[in-house]
Sequence to fold (916 residues):
Amino acid sequence: MPANLGLAHLSNAFLIVALLCYSLAVLAFAGDFAFGRRRGAAAGRQARARVPELVGAGAADSSAPGDADAAAADSPAPGFGSRSRHEPAAGAWVRAALVATTVGLAAHVLGVITRGLAVHRIPWGDMYEFVTALTCVAVIFFLGLMIRYKAYYLGLFVMGAVVIALGLAQTVIYTAAGPLVPALQSYWLSIHVTAMTVATGTYFVAAVLGVVYLFAARQARLVTAGGSAASARIMRRLPGPDVLDRLAYRTVMFAFPIWTFGIIAGAIWADQAWGRYWGWDPTETWAFITWVVYACFLHARATAGWRGKKAQIIQLAGFGCLIFNLVGVSLFVTGLHSYAGLN
Amino acid sequence: MTGLHTPDTTQPTEGPPARRGPRPSRARPVRAQLGPGGWLRWAWRQLTSMRTALILLFLLALGSVPGSLLPQQGLNPSAVQQYFLSHPALAPWLNRLGLFNVFAAPWFAAVYLLLFVSLAGCVVPRTIRLARSARALPPAAPRNLARLPSSARLETTLPPPQALAAARALLSARRFRLRVAGDWVAAEKGHRREAGNLLFHLALLGVLLSIGLGGLFGYKANRLLVEGNTFADTVTNLDVYHPGRLVSPADLAPFTITLNRFSASYITSGVDRDQPAAFHALIRYASGPGAPARGYDLQVNHPLVVDGVRVFLIGHGYAPVFRVTDGAGHVVFNQPVPFIAVDTGTYTSEGVIKVPNARPEQLGFIGVFLPTAVNQGGRLESAFPAALNPMVSLVSYAGNLGLGSGVPQSVYQLNTAGMHRLAVSPRPLQPGQSIKLPGGGGTLTFTGYRQWISLAITYDPGQLPALLCALAALAGLLLSFFVRRRRVFVRARAADDGRTVVELGGLARSDAGGGFETEFAELTEELRSSLARKSPAVQHSPGSQDAPAAERSPATQHSSDTSHSPDIQQEGE
Ligand code: HEM
Fold:
C-alpha cells in the first residue's frame, strides 16, 4: 500500500510543533537554571518530603509553598552536593517549561501516530522514524522522572539533548514516508524494534544523566578544592553527584531488561527471516557489545562497588556503542540489517 | 573479590548502611608456599571471581569488534577476497590473527569457554548456598533500631508481649520470614531476588550450551535453484555446506524441492520506487524419495519446515537462457545461466557462459543482463528491477576455457588467459535474437530468461533451548532487579510510664526499584492501627475520647540518614 502523503505531511507539521515547544521548554529550563529559586532557599523541604506517608492526614499539603518555607526554617540547610533530589516547588520558569514540554509531547506523539497511519505500519521502521520515536520515549520517561522525583534540574539537559536529536532527525536524516522492504515486514520485527526504541529512549536519558553526573562531580570537586564561585553557583542548581549516579543507575536498570528482550525478539526475527537466530552480522554484534557493556556497568555498580566516575564512564561507553550501531554500522558497514533506509 | 558473591551477612548493627567502600575481600592471601593443589585452588578462585568474569565478558565484547568491522569469511567471502586485494600487506597478518573469521577463531572460543567455566564455577556454588540459606533465619535485631535507615517509634497501652504478637501477625501476613527472641522480632523477605539473579546467570549458561549444541549437531547450507529445476538435499547438491562438528552426510534430511515459479513485485512510484514489495516462490516439495509432493508458497520470513529442517528464501535473480550452436552445426548448449545482480536497485546482473563442448574451439561469454533496458544518452541501462524489457549484452571469447587444468573455477568467472576475444558487434540482444560468431564459429541465441532463488537450509537443534534459556534469563533479570531484599525489626519494651514503646527499624539491602520507604511506612501505619484495635479502652487523657491508644510521638518517625533522599537510597550492593 503506498504511503498516504497527506498524513505524512501532517506528521511532519506535528513534529515541527513538537520541536518548537521543546525548544521553548529548553529556554524556560535554562531560565530556571539561571534565575529560578535556589536550592538553598527551600532546602528543608526534603525533611517534609521524606516521609510524606507518615505525616498524619491533613498535616502536609505538599504543594503549599508556605509549608516548604516553614520546613526550611526548622531544619538545617544542606550544603552543596547534598544528596537531596528535591528541588523547590516548581517555580514559574519550571511551570512554563513543563507546559511547553507537555504540549510538545502531545504534538510529538501525534506526529509519530500520524506517521504510522501514513505508512500503514509501526512508525519506527527507518532511521528517521526511529530517532523520532526514541526521543518521544525519552521525553515520556523524563516527564515520569520529573513527576516521581521532581527532578526539574534535568530539564535543561534532557530536553536540550532531545531538541538536538529531534532537530537532526528532521533535517539530516529525514526520510520520506514509504513501506518497508520484505525482509522488514514481520510481526517480530515490530516487537524487536519497539523494544529497541523504548530501551534506546531510556538509555538516552541515562546517558544525559551520566554526562550531568560527570559535570556535577567535577564542579563538586572544584568547590571542595576551594574553587570558583561559578562552580558553587552551579552546584546550588544541581543535585549532588550521588543522586545523579543513583538515578542513572536506575534508569539503566529500567532499560536493560527491555534491551535484553529486544535482542531476543531480534534473534527470533532473524531466525524467521534468515534461518539463524544469531549470525554475528555487524548490527547484531554491536547490539551484543552494547548489552555486554551495560552489563559491565550494572556489575561494576552493583557488585564491584564502583560507584561514580568509573561506572558512569562505562555507562557512557555503552551508549557510545549504541550510537555507533545506529550511525556507524547502518551507514558504513553493510550487513543484512541495512536498516537505515538511507543506502 | 569472591566475597562479593556471598549473600550479605553484615549485621545491621555494624553501622550506617551507606556501604560505599569496597567490601572486604574473602580471598585469602596467597601464601609463599603453595603446593600444586594450593595453586590449583588459587587459580580456580581467580578464574571464578567476579572480576575475571567481567574482564572475560569485556574481552568477548572487544573481540567481536573486529568481527563487525572487517569482512568475515562466514558472512561474505568475496568481500574478504576483495580486502586481500586492496590491502596486500595488512591482510595476511589480520588473517593470521583470525580476524577474518573472528567468531570461529580459537582465541574467541577460548574467551567464550573460559567465561563459561568462570560462570559455572561461580554460579553453581552460589545456587547451593542459596538453597541452604533459604531456610536460614533472619539475623538478630540490632540494639538500636533508630540507627537503621528507616525507623519509627510507636506507643501503646498493650503489654509488650501482645504488642510483639501483633507485629508478628502483621509481618507473617505479609509473608516475611520471622525470627522471634526476647523482646524483638526480626523479619526478612525477598530471597526471590537472589533466586532471580541465579536464574539469570544459570540461564546464561544455558544459552551458551544451546549455542554449542547447535554448533555440534546443526548444519547450514545454501542452494541456488532455477525455475523448473529440482534438487535433493544431499551434500553434493548443495552449493555451500557448513556441517556441525558431529554431523555426517547421512544425517541430512532427504527432501527434494522443485521451483515452479518465482514472482517479485516492486513499488512503482514514490521515493521507494524500485524497492521490492513482496516475493513469492511457488515450490513443490517432498519430504523424501517417494513421498507425495506438496505445494508451498515460500516467502521472506515464511520458511518451509520439512523434516525438522527449515528452508528460507534469501535471494533471487535472473537466469537468461542461451542456445549455442557450434561451427559444426550441433546444439552444444541450451540452458539457463544464473546471473548475479550487481545492483539490487535495478537488478543489472552479470554472469558468464562457458561452452566447453563447442568445436572447433571452446566458447566463453561474459554477459550483462538488464531486466528493464532503457537507452540513457547512448548507453543501455536497467531502469527497474522487474523484467519489463529484458536485454543481454555479451562479450564473446574463443579458445581454451582452462577447465581441464585441475584448478577449480568459479562458475561466475571466465578465465580468458587461454582465449581470444571475438570481433562481434556489441549490439545487445532481445529475447529471440542471436549473434553470429565470426569465421563460422556458430551462433548464440538469447532465447528468454528464467528466474532463480537462493535458499538457505538450516538445521539447529539448539534453537529452542536457546530461546527458552534466553527467556528464563530475562525473567531472572526482572526478578533480581525489581524484588528487593529487606529486613524489618520490631522491639517492644515497657516504658517508665507503664506504656509500651514499640520500635521499628528496617533496611533494604537492594532497593534498586525504590519504594522500601513506602513499604516501611505502610507497615508502621498498619501496626499502629492494629495496636490501636487491640488495646484496651483508653484509660488516661480523658480529654480525647477517641485518641488512638497507640499514637505516634511526633518527632520520632524519621529516616536516620538525613542526607539521603528517601526514594533513592539503599539500592543494591
Ligand atoms: C563468573 C561470572 C559471573 C559472576 C561471578 C557474576 C556475579 C554476579 C553477582 C554476584 C551478581 C549479583 C548482584 C547483586 O546481587 O546485586 C550479578 C548480577 C548480575 N550479573 Fe553477573 N556474574 C557473572 C557473569 C555475568 C555475565 C556473563 C553476565 C552477562 C552479561 C552477567 C550479568 C549480570 C547482571 C545483568 C546482573 C544484575 C546486576 C544487578 O543486580 O544490578 N553476569 N552477577
The mean pLDDT of chain B is 79. The first helix of chain B runs from residue 36 to 47. Residues 393 and 426 of chain B are 7 Å apart (CA to CA). Residues A 292, 295, 298-299, 302-303; B 4-5, 48, 50, 53, 57, 118-119, 122, 197, 201, 204, 477, 480, 510, 572 surround protoporphyrin IX containing FE (CB under 6 Å).
